[in-house]
Design brief:
The chain is mainly α. It is built from four helices and no strands. α1 runs antiparallel to α2, α1 packs antiparallel against α4 and α2 runs antiparallel to α3. The longest helix is centred in the middle third of the chain and has 26 residues.
């Protein structure tokens, strides 16, 4: 069972665009916690699980038939982040989680802009 403050409520989300935005933000939040050396190992383990799950959701939700080059590039980005997560999980110091965080910040900002255009 999940602790109440760790739940992400998808029941209230009927728009796939919003669902993907939530998953992107959850991935970014987990990456930040993993990259923060002040976080205890017990919390970081939970964040790895969340990050791998979020990354899988994002990769498996891509529509390559209709998304074309954008879907392919997003897949590459998510795969790069997955590889960096694997390095960090193995406690390698050559991971680039910071790069993933910056790239996801940009994708999230663009995704929010698309949502604003859909609403407006």
């Amino acid at each position: 069972m999940y602790i109440q403050d760790q739940k992400v409520h998808f029941n209230d989300v009927s728009d796939p665009h919003t669902t993907i935005l939530i998953v992107m933000k959850e991935l970014n939040k987990s990456l930040r916690k993993i990259a923060d050396p002040a976080n205890p190992a017990s919390k970081v383990r939970t964040e790895f699980s969340k990050a791998f799950t979020s990354n899988y959701i994002l990769q498996s939700s891509l529509d390559f038939a209709n998304g074309g080059e954008i879907a392919e590039n997003l897949y590459r980005l998510y795969e790069y982040c997955r590889q960096q997560l694997l390095k960090a999980f193995a406690r390698r110091t050559d991971h680039n989680l910071g790069t993933c965080i910056v790239l996801l910040d940009e994708i999230i900002q663009a995704w929010e802009g698309i949502g604003d255009k859909k609403e407006g």
